[in-house]
Amino acid sequence: MINRKLIGARYFYEGFKATSNVSINASFNSARDYAGHGTHTLSTAAGNFVPGVSVFGNGNGTASGAAPKARVVSYKVCWEGSDCNDADVLAAFEAAITDGVDVINLSLAGDDPKEYFNNSLSIGSFHAVVNGLVVVSAAGNDGPKPSTVLNFEPWVITVAASRTNRDFINTVTLGDNTTLKGMSLSMSGLSSDKLYQMINASNANTNDVTPELASVCLNKTHIDPEKVKGKILICNTPFLDQTWAEEMGAVGVIYPSINPRIELDPKPLTFPTSNLRYSHSKYFLSYMNSTK
């Protein structure tokens, strides 16, 4: 008999404890989520309605999970400093079957796909389906390239990444009055009444760093703060979290997209940023190379 009032949290670590030399921190010897992944996944699946949500004023509205009225159980099988142990994964599947859940959301995927009969996720999900449960699995975080999908057992529902039908835009207006669109969750923008000089990170390198290394903006020690102060810094990378650029005196950061296959990923920053679309980046780079 299915328990329609089911709600709770459980954890499984006997397999991990038997095969690992890593000790479990006593404060996390529970169903508590130390990394945030489980909390994020659970709220995406069944988070309640929360009105008045925004990120620095972007995306105003009511947020919720896919099934906000659902009752949930969290099964923790992964531990700090280790992979998810097969024995613990299988124990959690069996517990879910015994507990009488209807749907299992499986946000786990190994890096090395195995034959079904050697894969604990395949075995556990098959047993769950045989017992009448629906198993929904993550497809992994890679792609779009061939052979990057994980959890492709025919008895589970495997869901790939998706996106919303709206964009968060921060426009860039150049000195020739051309306006380009970029992705951003910036808290603020620059004054439209003033022009700001731009500097490519490759030209803002310190004396002991090559221009090529500095261009990707991976480390603030690669950039000379005197060169970027009061200017807009141009980083030739996908959108990274360069909060240090503001600390060094830059007034903003622009990221031209040089690869059409890279998905733009706006991050919330407190100062003006814009991750330009690939179609606009070619014009932007041409403009930058032809004018001061």
Automatic annotation (TrEMBL):
Sequence ranges assigned to domain Peptidase S8/S53 in this UniProt record: 25-189
Main location: secreted
SUPFAM superfamilies from the UniProt entry: Subtilisin-like (SSF52743)
Keyword Signal: yes
Gene3D superfamilies per the UniProt record, alphabetical: Peptidase S8/S53 domain
Gene Ontology biological process terms in this record: proteolysis
Protein's cellular compartments: Secreted
GO cellular component, one term: extracellular region
Entry keywords, A to Z: Signal
Database matches in Pfam families: Peptidase_S8
CDD domains: PA_subtilisin_like
An example molecular function term from Gene Ontology annotations: serine-type endopeptidase activity
Family according to the record: Belongs to the peptidase S8 family.
Protein name: Peptidase S8/S53 domain-containing protein
Species the sequence originates in: Lupinus luteus (European yellow lupine)
